[in-house]
Design a protein that fits this description.
heterodimer; A: 205 residues; alpha+beta; 34% helix; 18% strand; B: 1165 residues; Beta Polymerase, domain 2; Poly(a)-polymerase, middle domain; Alpha-Beta Plaits; five-stranded mixed beta sheet; 35 helices; 30 strands
């Protein structure tokens, strides 16, 4: 079953609290872009629409899910542009427009601004899962289509989300001060960023 | 959030209008005001059809009266026998006569005439209906010269009335007049029973004289011939009731009987004053309209001629106006002129009431004979409100008390201020808003059950008191007033004392209204508190050396309470020391004490204070009590020490920061935290890290420099480098710091995720967080907008960046201005702080607080303090709170801009009294030096409003408009507030207000009040419940610094003496989860949570599903979890997706993990 070239990927979510198990639907297709290694016939990446939210969609948890479909497909990287607007203050207006990619840095200074990161350039609510090789991607898609098309197979083969043991949820996650910064690391990042900016300034002159 | 406001159509003001207004200001305040008055007067007119009908009834009634036969002279016994089989009693006033040495008789009256406002044709429409007064004059032949003594005339009148009643009760049905009869005290005066005639109310009766629907009643008054008694003998200082009393040696020592005397004289002048007023009306074109305005103004403030309603009504207002048309100045100069407009007549009269003292300093003396027109203000008053007619020798204010006069004057002063307002339209506040709700009107109201009060004090109402005060109720009101005025002195502005209910009409088969009516009646003490004085702990008395006054002081306060104290200036004075309380104003403590001392039973076995109902204390006790040891648990309500301690800590940390050695010096540290302006729900308790307001946000401004990068990331990083440096330095150098750390600020400004915040924990137990502002920030936002506008199709992008800019302005610029304004105003309005805190608590209890910026709430609450008409500045948390509810339930945000004058110049109001003739003169010196909102700014704000509503007529983007000098745009704080939340706030306010201001419930009971502070969870689509073992409420309550509830051993309560968690964890994980949920799913579900989790036993997060996402075409980048709609084989549903609520809830459950007990979804109906 495809929608505009997308293949449906159903992921079972276990029972939690009083909620019974349920299914989350993603829609996937090969990821293409202007880059020469991301053309229709050579891309190793899969474009995922409607992935699970960030703490549930990590490299480890994606690997666990994908392995259930094709154990021979190896994943090297997961990019995620989460549908999240942390500047939303309760229901007081959304700050982020999910239809736009805004780069304040470039807008404030078109000559010296920094570009958005690869993740930030993805549409909101999408993910790119990169396989180690093209075969892995193809095998994965074939298996997924097979599962989708064969009702009895689909029944047997329930693909389940299992979480990532490195990601804490619940009390452990939320009782931490959020966004706490390691000062030493931050000092380095800041210093580096400022140095780069100085270099850009010099180049511009 | 629309509302139904009285039909005052507000015109928009243009500069041209202003010009015209200036020209017409002489006659009317403004054109708009004139239009409003015209419309109002039209609305107040009696219905023509009603008048025609009632005239028919009156005509018939007159005929019937003419048919009543004369009686023979009857002795008391004969008179009583006459009625014995007739089911009618003679309404003799107290004391009931036992034997009389004169006869009672009815002879056809000399005269039957219409009197009162209907007779004068100045009556107006009123909700409670209206009575049409008919005066029936007893013939001279029935009255003897000495009948003014010892109730004689009252007994004769009572018989006369009963006889008339008897015949009417027979003649009316015989002649098809559909009426029912009852007795009623005229104006509540127990010496003057009258006959009240109402229409019968029978829908099946086809009688065309049924006048039920007119809402009119007819009142028959028994009048006496004008001049029948020598009026000199009935002057207010004369005695007319001669009694024997062991304390009295001669008649001259008997106390005066002013009420008694005036009751007699006034019943000789019903028709006389009608003629007097009629003549004035004839000579003054606008008199009638002004009278209508006056009557409405009085009734909106609870005044009428009834003794229990201030004793100043339509009649008294009109007489005053007439007297002022004849003169009224010190040298008979005229205060009002015959050519004045209705507005001028009304305003002139109000000004006279506001500025002239008719009680202590002087009085108004006039002559109702026009040929001897002589109306003067005379110095030296009689210590009672006095408007004296030299011709009739009546003090026309005889029904007023000092108490009611002081209230009338207060309202007049406030109204004069409104009339002088040149900036805002005040018509509503002057005429349309009704200020009769007990809980809204007074700062505090104390209700004493009347039966109990009488029971405890009957023995004090002796024969001398009886003749002076007529009734025990009058006596008690007077006594309590005197006691409280002396006890409270300048702690209060005014005290209003009256009974909850007026005496009701009663059956004609009873002599007087039964005492049962006292059962549900209360004596009410309404206080207008002076918050600057009310909570002082010491009442100072006379110097110790003054023996005589000292003795008086001791006898007033009692030997235990009155102490001699020595003060810093070495004076030794008699004084009383009062405990302070976190819930009661000291005023209430004093009242309870003094009532117990002077009005309890003589053996003090029963204390009156046990019976008092005081609602205001219940509201203050809702505020969370701070966690401090039991022994010191008595912080005052006004400015508790906690706020002061926090400020000291802030000063200390600021000093440390200023002293740091940085490449650029810190120029200023600007606080923007609610706790630092005394408006946080929970009092700042040291080490209470669970308080959601624990970290006090501040903004650091560095010295200016031209080296700030002009690119966002680098600018933020340069600031961050400073912040990191500050963090390192302060950890090294300050002994005052427990810990400091840095977090990323991802919330404040969309698209700017590089902001860092420095958080500091001080050794004295407070938390502060700092961010840096440079002079380049604003520039870069504006630059970005400019650059963006050069791009093609940039409109939506610009909107997003403008939004970032707005959020920057909120966080860094306007929050500072707001903080500054509020922290000054909070000291000027002592009850503001506690009111805001309670109001925030209420919003939080209704799960709304998180949806509104606290600044918005503070401004809305401020409205009731700075723009307080017609109520006045709240002097208690209860009134503050209720008036905020009142404001919110009435305000129409879509049509009206809220414009607030945050002026710190508080004395200007008084100048208006003197300068009110130059009201339009905006260029006056005074206007220039104040920071009051001027007309130009006001108009500019109005312009922004009109522009805003042109683009957003339904208030979808900006539901509230709040303009101030700091924010002409009116939307800095309110842009983006959800319309759903705004509407919900309006409707919740209405519900709460209706429940809390229901005048039928004298007592607001505690459970009921709790209910008002409980959320209606059934209104939500989703409820997430938490495992309360994981996050103990008890623990959170403690770590929030709130005193525990339901505790057994008060001595075991432990204070928090140090930081109890490690600094990397938080006390309330639910708030973090909530943040995550709104960040992720806030677009499709409106999530709500209580901010102050420590106050709730069962925590929940609720969700309302935003409609409109049921079916959309599939696309990449939807912004929310979705799934294809089933059955998408059919073409119409192909590629349609829907919001996947189940999936969201599952994600919530997984994210929340062990915190969550259950997630419930309301069944879809």
């Amino acid at each position: 079953m495809t929608t505009r070239g997308f293949v449906k990927l159903e992921i079972a979510l276990p029972e939690v609290a009083n909620l019974p198990s349920s299914t989350h639907c993603c829609y996937v297709k090969p990821h293409t872009s202007k880059l020469p290694n991301q053309q229709q016939d050579n891309t190793c990446s899969l474009f995922v629409v409607n992935p699970l939210p960030q703490p549930m969609w990590t490299l480890a948890s994606v690997r666990t899910i994908f392995r259930q479909i094709s154990s021979a497909s190896h994943i090297s990287n997961v990019l995620l542009h989460d549908c999240i607007d942390e500047s939303r203050v309760s229901s007081i207006g959304s700050g982020v427009n999910y239809d736009l990619h805004i780069n304040l840095s470039i807008l404030s200074n078109p000559d010296l601004g920094s570009p958005l990161s690869e993740e930030e350039m993805l549409p909101f609510g999408t993910s790119v899962v990169t396989f180690v090789d093209r075969d892995g991607l193809e095998l994965f898609l074939t298996n997924l289509t097979n599962i989708n098309n064969n009702k009895s197979k689909k029944k047997d083969k329930i693909i389940t989300w299992k979480g990532d043991e490195n990601v804490s949820l619940g009390f452990e996650r939320y009782s931490k001060v959020q966004n706490l910064v390691n000062r030493d690391e931050m000092e380095k990042i800041v210093a580096k960023s400022l140095l780069e900016f100085q270099n850009r300034e010099k180049e511009a002159e | 959030i629309k509302n139904t406001k009285p039909s005052s159509k507000k015109a928009k003001i243009s500069s041209q209008d202003i010009q015209i207004a200036k020209e017409t200001a002489e006659l009317f305040k403004s054109n708009i005001f004139k239009l409003q008055i015209d419309e109002l007067i039209n609305e107040l007119k009696l219905k023509q059809s009603h008048c025609i009908l009632i005239e028919k009834v009156l005509h018939k009634l007159n005929n019937l009266i003419g048919k009543i036969p004369n009686s023979t002279p009857l002795s008391l016994i004969e008179a009583q026998n006459f009625f014995s089989d007739k089911n009618i009693k003679i309404p003799f006033p107290d004391p009931k006569p036992n034997n009389l040495n004169y006869n009672l008789q009815y002879i056809i009256p000399d005269d039957v005439s219409l009197v009162g406002s209907f007779g004068l044709k100045t009556a107006i429409n009123s909700k409670n209906g209206m009575s049409i007064d008919i005066c029936i004059s007893m013939p001279k032949s029935l009255i003897q010269q000495k009948d003014y003594l010892n109730y004689r005339i009252f007994y004769k009148k009572a018989f006369y009335l009963a006889y008339l009643t008897h015949y009417l009760s027979i003649l009316a049905p015989e002649n098809n007049l559909p009426i029912k009869l009852s007795y009623d005290y005229h104006n509540g005066n127990k010496l003057c029973p009258s006959l009240l005639i109402e229409s019968i109310n029978d829908k099946n009766d086809k009688n065309n004289l049924i006048f039920n629907k007119t809402n009119f009643k007819i009142r028959i008054l028994i009048g006496l011939p004008f001049g029948i008694f020598e009026s000199k003998k009935l002057l207010p200082d004369r005695n007319s009731i001669r009694i024997q009393n062991s304390l009295i040696n001669s008649i001259d020592d008997l106390p005066p009987t002013p009420l008694y005397n005036a009751s007699i004289l006034s019943s000789t002048t019903y028709s006389y004053y009608l003629k007097y007023l009629y003549t004035t009306k004839k000579s003054t074109e606008s008199f009638k309209d002004a009278a209508a305005l006056g009557k409405l103004w009085l009734s909106q403030r609870g005044f009428n001629s009834n003794i229990n309603n201030g004793g100043f009504g339509h009649f008294e207002f009109n007489i005053l106006m007439s007297a002022l048309l004849q003169g009224g100045g010190l040298n008979n100069n005229k205060i009002l002129l015959h050519g004045y407009s209705s507005y001028q007549l009304f305003k002139g009269t109000i000004r006279y009431l506001a500025t002239q003292d008719l009680c202590d300093d002087g009085y108004l003396s006039f002559n109702s004979l026009f040929d001897e027109s002589d109306s003067n203000y005379k110095k030296k008053g009689f210590n009672v409100p006095t408007l004296f007619d030299k011709n009739t020798k009546i003090n026309l204010l005889w029904k007023m008390t000092k108490s009611s006069y002081s209230i009338l004057k207060k309202f007049a002063i406030e109204t004069l201020d409104l009339l002088n307002d040149t900036v805002k339209d005040r018509f509503n506040q002057i005429f349309l808003i009704n200020n009769n709700n007990l809980n809204l009107k007074y700062d505090s109201i104390i209700s004493i059950p009347l039966n109990k009060l009488i029971e405890l004090n009957e023995d004090k109402f002796g024969s001398l008191e009886k003749i002076s005060f007529v009734t025990i109720e009058n006596y008690l009101c007077n006594k309590i007033y005197k006691l409280l005025i002396e006890a409270l002195d300048d702690r209060i502005y005014q005290i209003d004392i009256h009974l909850l209910k007026n005496t009701q009409p009663w059956s004609i088969n009873k002599r007087k209204s039964s005492n049962d009516s006292n059962k549900d009646n209360y004596l009410l003490i309404g206080l207008f508190i002076n918050p600057n004085e009310s909570d002082k702990r010491i009442t100072k008395g006379p110097l110790h050396t003054n023996k005589e006054l000292g003795e008086k002081f001791v006898s007033f306060w009692g030997e235990e309470k009155a102490q001699i104290r020595k003060y810093k200036d070495n004076t030794v004075q008699w004084s009383c020391l009062w405990d302070i309380s976190p819930t009661d104003s000291v005023v209430l403590t004093i009242i309870k004490f003094i009532l117990d001392r002077h009005l309890s039973s003589s053996n003090n076995l029963h204390l009156l204070s046990n019976d008092l109902i005081i609602n205001s204390s219940k509201f203050t006790s809702l505020l969370p009590k701070p966690l401090i040891p039991h022994s010191s648990n008595s912080q005052p309500l006004i400015l508790p020490n906690h706020f002061i301690q926090l400020k000291l800590s802030f000063d200390k940390i600021s000093k440390d920061l200023f002293n740091l050695n940085l490449p650029l010096k810190i120029k200023s540290i600007l606080p923007i935290s609610s706790s630092l302006r005394n408006t946080s729900i929970i009092l700042p308790v040291p080490f209470a890290t669970g308080n959601p307001d624990f970290f006090n946000e501040c903004i650091i401004q560095l010295e200016s420099s031209n080296r700030w990068p002009d690119e966002f990331i680098s600018l933020e990083n340069t600031k961050n480098a400073f912040l990191l440096k500050i963090c390192n330095e302060i950890l090294k150098n300050s002994s005052n710091i427990k810990d400091a750390f840095i977090i990323k600020d991802k919330n404040s400004i969309p698209y700017n995720s590089n902001i860092l915040i420095l958080k500091i924990l001080t050794n004295d137990g407070y938390g502060f967080s700092f961010r840096i502002l440079t002079e380049n920030d604003e520039f870069l936002y504006l630059k970005s907008i400019e650059n963006c506008s050069k791009l093609p199709n940039s409109q939506t992008q610009i909107q997003s960046i403008e939004n970032s800019y707005l959020r920057f302005m909120q966080k860094y610029i306007n929050s500072v201005k707001h903080h500054r304004s509020i922290s000054i105003l909070v000291t000027h309005y002592p009850y503001y702080s506690a009111t805001v805190r309670l109001f925030k608590l209420w919003l939080d209890s209704q799960m709304i607080l998180n949806h509104l910026p606290e600044e918005v709430i503070e401004l809305i609450v401020l409205q009731c303090f700075i723009d307080n008409a017609p109520y006045g500045i709240p002097g208690s948390v209860m009134t503050g709170f209720l008036r905020v509810l009142k404001f919110l339930s009435n305000w129409n945000w879509i049509e009206d801009p809220l414009i607030l004058d945050l002026s710190k110049d508080f004395n200007n109001g008084n100048n208006d009294l003197e300068n009110d003739n130059n009201i339009i003169n905006n260029d006056s010196y005074i206007n220039k030096i104040t920071d009051k909102l001027d007309l130009e700014t006001y108009q500019n704000i109005n312009k922004s409003f009109n522009k805003l509503r042109e683009n957003d007529p339904q208030g979808v983007k900006v539901p509230y408009f709040i303009g101030t000098k700091d924010d002409i745009s009116g939307k800095i704080w309110t842009q983006g507030i959800s319309l759903v939340i705004a509407s919900r706030l309006t409707s919740l306010s209405r519900v709460a207000l209706n429940l809390l201001t229901n005048n039928d419930n004298i007592e607001i009971n505690d459970k009921f009040l709790q209910l008002i502070f409980t959320p209606a969870l059934k209104d939500y689509d989703i409820i997430i419940k938490f495992d309360m073992k994981k996050i103990s409420s008890k623990k959170l309550r403690r770590s929030s610094g709130i005193y525990p509830n339901n505790i057994k051993f008060k001595n075991l309560i432990e204070q928090i003496n140090n930081y109890e968690n490690d600094g990397e964890t938080v006390d309330d994980p639910i708030l973090n989860l909530y943040r995550e949920l709104i960040s992720r799913f806030g677009e499709v579900i409106v999530w709500s949570v209580r901010k102050t989790g420590g106050l709730v036993d069962e925590r929940v997060i609720t969700g309302l599903i935003v409609p409109g996402n049921e079916s959309r075409k599939f696309k990449v980048g939807m912004g929310y979890p979705m799934k294809l709609i089933n059955g998408n084989d059919s073409n119409d549903k192909k590629d349609q997706v829907t919001l996947d609520i189940e999936d969201i809830l599952k994600s919530c459950a997984i994210l929340g993990g062990d915190l969550i007990k259950s997630i419930e979804r309301k069944p879809i109906s």
